[in-house]
């Protein structure tokens, strides 16, 4: 019989027993109550909980107003003598005190076995902690590697960009120099032609036929020596952008693997 004065769990005898099993007439702590309800034999038991429970009040069969004296092993229920005849006649019955002792021993073994198994795995906690630290360190290394690769790819892109710009500027310098040279040659030729034009105009006042003929030959000779300047094709420059899909960018990086 449970003792109301101590209110201590009757299974582990160490924790407060504020859960009263109506079928077993025993006090349980929270942990032993959970174990009790997980046991096949007592999974349907009902509990009264709270500080004011009175386990000294003997539970009885409300249907027949009789005390429970048997425990039905098949139904996992306490029964009175009338219930035993009416509803549990062919069932495996035992005295309720025997059943209580058996259930109590079974629950005690279950609790102790569970604690023993959990305690045997305590060293695994250290391994889990170590594994956690190792995993987190690996994650940081991978993050660093990804960032390093990203910086490397950015450097290569920047180098490519600068290379294209340098090539463009060098080509532009050569083209501008060529065009300026052609322009200067064209101006020089034009100035020479204008100079001969002035000489030609001056010949209009020469009356001496021989002297005029000689002067005209000189002008013609100078004009013939002036080369015609070919205007070059004007240079052009374009840039054809390349469309890069996001998936192609991903190919530049390594792959993550998870173990």
TrEMBL record:
GO terms for molecular function: zinc ion binding. The keyword Zinc applies. It comes from Mytilus galloprovincialis (Mediterranean mussel). Transmembrane segments: none annotated. Residues 176-229 form a coiled coil. Residues 4-50, 56-96 form the B box-type domain. PROSITE patterns: ZF_BBOX. Keywords: Coiled coil, Metal-binding, Zinc, Zinc-finger. The keyword S-adenosyl-L-methionine does not apply. InterPro entries: TRIM45/56/19-like, Znf_B-box. This is B box-type domain-containing protein. Gene3D superfamilies: Classic Zinc Finger (3.30.160.60).
């Amino acid at each position: 019989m449970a003792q109301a004065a101590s209110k201590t769990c009757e299974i582990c005898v160490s924790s407060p027993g504020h859960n009263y099993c109506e079928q077993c007439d025993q006090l349980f702590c929270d942990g032993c109550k959970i174990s009790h309800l997980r046991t096949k034999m007592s999974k349907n038991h009902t509990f009264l909980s709270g500080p004011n429970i009175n386990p000294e009040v003997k539970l009885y069969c409300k249907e027949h107003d009789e005390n429970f004296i048997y425990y039905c092993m098949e139904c996992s229920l306490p029964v009175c003598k009338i219930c035993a005849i009416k509803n549990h006649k062919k069932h495996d019955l035992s005295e309720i005190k025997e059943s209580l002792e058996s259930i109590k021993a079974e629950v005690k073994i279950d609790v102790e076995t569970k604690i023993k198994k959990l305690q045997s795995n305590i060293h695994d906690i250290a391994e889990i902690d170590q594994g956690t630290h190792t995993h987190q360190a690996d994650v940081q290394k991978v993050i660093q590697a990804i960032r390093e690769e990203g910086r490397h790819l950015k450097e290569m892109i920047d180098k490519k960009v600068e290379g294209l710009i340098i090539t463009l500027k060098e080509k532009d310098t050569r083209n501008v120099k060529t065009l300026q040279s052609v322009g200067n040659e064209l101006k020089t030729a034009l100035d020479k032609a204008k100079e001969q034009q002035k000489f030609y105009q001056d010949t209009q006042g020469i009356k001496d036929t021989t002297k005029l003929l000689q002067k005209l030959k000189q002008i013609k000779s100078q004009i013939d020596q002036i080369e015609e300047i070919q205007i070059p094709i004007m240079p052009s420059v374009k840039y054809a952008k390349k469309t890069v899909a996001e998936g192609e960018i991903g190919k530049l990086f390594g792959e993550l693997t998870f173990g």
